[in-house]
Amino acid sequence: MKIAITALAIGLTSASFAHAQTQITGAGSTFAAPIYAKWGDASSSVTGIKLNYQAIGSGAGINQINNRTVDFGASDMPVAADQLETHKLMQFPTVIGGVDIIVNLPGIKPNDLKLTGALLADIYLGKITKWNDPQIAKLNPAVKLPSLAIAPVYRADGSGTTFVFTDYLSMLSTDWKSQVGSSTSVKWAAGTGAKGSDGVSGTVHNIKGGIGYVESAYAEMNHLTTTQLQNNAGKFVSPSMDSYKAAAASADWSSVKNFAIDLNNQPGDASWPIESATFVLLPTDPKDPNHSAAVKKFFDWGFAHGNDIATQLLYIPLPATVQNAVRAVWQKEVPGTM
Amino acid sequence: MQQAIAASPAVQPRHRRYDVGDAIFALLARSSGAFVLVLLGSLILSLFVGGLPAFRHFGLGFVFSTDWDPVKQIFGAAVSVYGTLITSVLALMLAVPLAFGIAFYLTELAPEWLRRPVGTSIELLAAVPSIIYGMWGFFVIVPIMSQYIQPFVIDRLDGIPVLQDLFAGPPFGTGILTASIILAVMVIPFIAATMRDVFDTVPAVFKESAYGLGCTTWEVMRSIVLPYTRASVVGGIMLGLGRALGETMAVTFVIGNTDRISSSLFGPGNTIASIVALEFPESPAGSLKLSSLLALGFILFVISFIVLAISRILLKPRLKVG
To answer: Which stretches in chain A have pLDDT values below 70?
Structure first.
């Protein structure tokens, strides 16, 4: 298997080596693929770096960088410190994305409905099964809730989005934490699975009473019916660029090692409670320091000039202080001068 | 021409060259045959070796455990094995009568000018990529199931024992039955095309004799055509079953992808092929999860092998009689 993937990676790399530019290869996160592709297009004429990125999933991306078949790996889930140590990797965040809750309820408009993390956990545990449940009704006195069965929909494929969502539920519900836990795929107690964000939103769209979770960019572009959520400060917030940014800004990035921060349920009155950074993994012992230098140069360009592109694609750029902290660690840990 | 004439005095060396050619060709043919065996063997072996850590860790319980919990690292095959078998069997139950009807109509009843276009469309249907069936199922069949068929059936069967449990649950639209319907649609062309081809191989003189004795079309079909083609018909059905067992993309779209065994046919489930496709990209190398997925692949291999073996056994006595 490893050999097959390696062979494929080599094949893909060598096929596009015809250019005189520096070619860098990356693999992993599907969530971050659009922004890396856009940054690649926009920067290649300036930096002379051509990015070949394969969106094969975070787990596969980690495998590839562990085997050193690509120049960098990309993961939606921070890699544990001991794993970074074993495989001689340096980890840094690139952009941030939120996760929105979407529903399909007749007569209910986007951000009409208010939910809490504990309620979401009970819904996905199969404990709350009707939309007119007193617990939901209590939060939403102004909304006329139908007597519909709740149909929870989740990502059937292993996904960083599922990790962020289940991690959030674990924080807010002890039952969830003990019975299900958080991972890229979990043992769901209720509901049905669908493949990919489009599968989740399509299934929610098909079923009256459906509820699901998707990346914020996906919800926004497809004008899905999102909900408000209660944040750490007890306030109900609507998903928006401002609330995502508020959460990223109020996080204490210096408190964690390897930038492995958990952006879920951050303090702040305006903070959106479910969001996460996406990460890049760079070898600290690169086979070819020139390639590592090119990768650093690429993301340096992204940090310096790519924030507008990120915002257009509905990602949240990293706070400037975090970008500078990343640059400092590059200098220290990853060989190759930019 | 000129060359042939010029070469004719030297017949002897040319013969020898043919001998060399024959030898090379025989070698190539033989190694092609051996290649199939080596390929199959190495596939089974690599799946088994890859799945070995899972078999070691969970023991035989792996096959019978209904747990699939990636957080606690507990994996079992029962849910996806059940899903694979039930969807394939249901699909065949739906597909075989329909395919038989199609083949019967095309070979015995359809007017001559219609046989070709209908026959060609069946072959075209067999060539449609499975992802297309998946999308069609998800965007067309699933909404119909969830908005019309499932609420109606759940409503009507409420209160009838057994049936109310068999068709229960929220009308997600996706689930075991929807997956079986899509699978049936996918295997019908295979089975129908095989049946039509073999029905056509029945010598006209047999059928004409029967008609001459006053048989009806159905009697000719039942007493002449089916007995004559039984082996190939079963072969065609097995071909369909083989495709249904291993079908991945189309099933993944519509089965609901849930690692629970549901007593309801409307309930979501999972198949071996779809769980492997869904979980593979997020399984780190060397993890128990990846090993469990490879072990599932091995089990699917074994199931297909058993199906093939059963079909051979079923065919054998009849072949002797025939």
So the answer is: 1-20, 338
- Mean pLDDT taken over chain B: 86
What is the model's pLDDT at position B126?
86
Distance CA A271, CA A256 (A): 20
A280 at the B interface (CB within 8 A)? no
Mutant choice from B80, B139, B257 vs A, greatest count of A C-beta within 10 A: B257
- Edge-to-edge, what's the strand order for the sheet holding A236-237? A114-115, A228-230, A236-237
User: What are B257-290's pLDDT values in tens digits?
Assistant: 888 888 888 888 899 999 998 888 778 778 889 9
Chain B contact set for A194 (CB, 8 A)? 174, 256-257
Please give the residue of chain A at the shortest CA–CA distance from B259: A187
Which residues of A are less than 8 Å from B67 in CB distance? Answer: 187
- Tell me if ipTM is over 0.90: no
Q: Give the pLDDT of residue A5.
A: 53
Burial letters A171-183, b for 16+ CB under 10 A, else e: bbbeebbeebbbb
Whether A279 contacts A92, CB under 8 Å: yes
CA of A23 to nearest chain B CA: how many angstroms apart? 25
Select the more confidently predicted residue: B285 or B223: B223
Task: Answer whether A237's CB lies under 8 Å from A231's CB.
Answer: yes
Which residues are bridge partners to A215 per DSSP? A99
Phi (first) and psi of residue A211, to 5 degrees = -140, 145
pLDDT for the residue numbered A18: 40
Between CA A62 and CA B95 the distance in angstroms is 43
B139 touches chain A (CB under 8 A): yes
Residue B49's alpha-carbon distances to A135, A283, B37, B43, B44, in angstroms, are: 51, 30, 18, 10, 9
